[in-house]
Amino acid sequence: MAVRFGRRWLLVAAGTVALAGAVPALDALPVADRTGAQGLRQRILAGAAQPWVGLAEATGRLALPDLPALESTTALFTDVTRIRAFVAGPDRWRADVLTPVGERDTYRLDGGEYVWDFGFDQLTELTGRPVLRLPRAADLLPPELGRRLLGLAPDDPVTPLAARRIAGRAAAGLRLTPGDPDTTIGRVDVWADTETGLPLRVEVAPRANPAAPLLVSALQDVTLHAPEEAVLTPPQPPGSGDVLAAANDLGGALRVLDAAPPPPRLAGRPRVPLTGEELPGVGVYGAGLAGFVLVPVSRGIADRVLNGAGAAGGVPIPVPRGRAVRVATPLLSLAVRGRRAGGILLVGTVGPDVLERAVVELSQVPA
């Protein structure tokens, strides 16, 4: 997978889920750790070119309020996701989401992206490269997830973990402990192949309960060789559909076109520059593993999120006009404000008090 340490993805998708099930007996054997934690981090971040083929599993149980237009995205973090991957390099890979009734395959080939839907017998070519894209199943693969999280916090301290066997391979481990006191993330644990630095297992635990990881993604089996060229080519059987579609992005799913520009600073955090076309009203704030995204939404979407947040035990935020509510989960905080002219949604891996400050600041800006 392409190594894009886009904090934009993390801030939308942060809040996920514990993998159920015991480690197979093969993986419980002791392994000698010959790599220091800092050296292991450097090898992991430098190893994006390593080819591999394998099967991964991630599971999620994070309870979230209703997020209109994001149902398929939040489903990635509230259920078991099984992904078969074929990776030749950062820009040549295939990831298949396996379900009881079929599969949905994503292909990345030399700058282009395609999705094959087995059930609909349809190939979709995705156009454009969103500046703030929605997370996808391929982002949960341990190599992609491990590199992304470590790359977001290059200066936070890492310590070694006991080595283990994962998917039949010797794996050295490290623990990253975020230094920002506002982040909801308490630890990120990564185990990587001792020979290549390929991440094999990733665990993310909240600061409120660091002993209980809320995201675990692990390879069930893996081979460290390039896939056959044929499996990287999207199928086009006779009679199948072939369509074009824009790649999904957060702004396109929720934003409003006439939104005011996002402020340069919010809740004490600077706005992060985004490469590519600016999205009206959308802003990303903060750095490392502590930050949030601001998205303007329509009145209808704001009302639906407000109702869902209230049902989820949300805490009201005093604002001069309209309604505002904040919701806290162990890894993800959310705040929403609705009024007659529209609303705003804030989501991030920061405490709910940070998002409340942001809502209050935004409510003081003249409409």
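(ticket continues) Second input and output from the same batch:
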Amino acid sequence: METINKYKILKINYLILVLVLYATSVNSQTLNDYLSMASQNNPEIQSAYKEFEAALQKAPQVSSLPDPSLTMSAFGRMIETRVGAQEARFSLMQMFPWFGTLEAKKNAANLMAEATFQNYLDSRNEVFLMVKNSYAEIYEINKMIHLEEKNLEILDNYRELALSKFKNGKGAMVDVVRIDIKRNESATNIQLLKDQNEPFQIEFNSLLNRELDVSINIHDSLIIVENKVPFEKDSLFNSNPKLIRLDKKLLSLEAEKVTERKEGLPMIGLGLDYSIISKRDVPGLEMNGQDAIMPMLTVTLPIFRKKYNAKQKEVDFMMQATTFEKQAIKNKLQTNYSMASYNISKAKTLKALYIKQTESTQQAISLLIAAYSNSGTDFDEILRMNQDLLMLQTATVTANKNQFIAQSSIDYLISKQE
């Protein structure tokens, strides 16, 4: 009952949180709002939660007494006794498992329900990670479209400059043609990026289980909150639901082992046998026609031990399998954490390099434009440097996205969620 009440409180708090976050208007929706919508609407999360609610119903089933048995007998030909004919017989029997058996079953079921709840948390966290990754991909595409559009504006300015130089006899018409080629490339890239955005939008809205064409509000920047814990820390994955689920499963198996031992002990049955006796036509007969009441005691004899021993061995093997599974998952978490940490470090290093190179490239372009305005030469170098600038800017966006995704993976692995 304590476990059920605890999770009822968790469910109420969860619903309140969802309603508060969901109240935010569409135009100002943030990533946290989208995560809240996913937690409320995503069918995978809802399925996992319903499995948990179903698991909570197991304890009342296994901790209840067996149904009593009632036997009614009517005699086609009444059996004569000294005090009268026996007309009918009623037998009521209630079996009781060995002391502590029902409590052990209840404990095992509650622990397994707690393991199922951890599975729900892990499903939720996995969906959150997918939402973040999809959000980051859309952010990258939107940023690249914006950079390409800015590049188009810059190329338009270059075209005006080149056309002016040509009209003044200080430049060549081929410079204008080269710019038109670059402008066509940029316009095509914008269209391709917009086309690429559509499947990511469908993926994102699918994770939120809503209409696939609903617009998505992507902020201008990705907020990256570093949460890097030293890899050597022993408690690194203590909050990860995958490992907690297996810990709960091991405890449940321990309780099940106790249950199997107790089920190998006798069951005790208490009952009552009631016989209806009709009166005999005998004057002065003592106890004439008095009904018979007989208390009964039944004890099962679990002498065939093979099935009980096999159940014990089954639980032992399951515990060993769960222990190995836990170690395998921990090894995988450590590997993924190490890779994500490397990806964060790599992205930060590249971002610093790209930002520095962007500043230098912008300075070089300014010098080249000034030289071209005076002499009308080196226009090819201006276009090349402008293309380098665009590549550096898009590479910075990609590095920022990669850092965000890697940090989201770290948060998932150590189970730090909003």
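Agent notes: The mean pLDDT is 87. The radius of gyration is 38 Å. Closing as not reproducible unless the customer responds.
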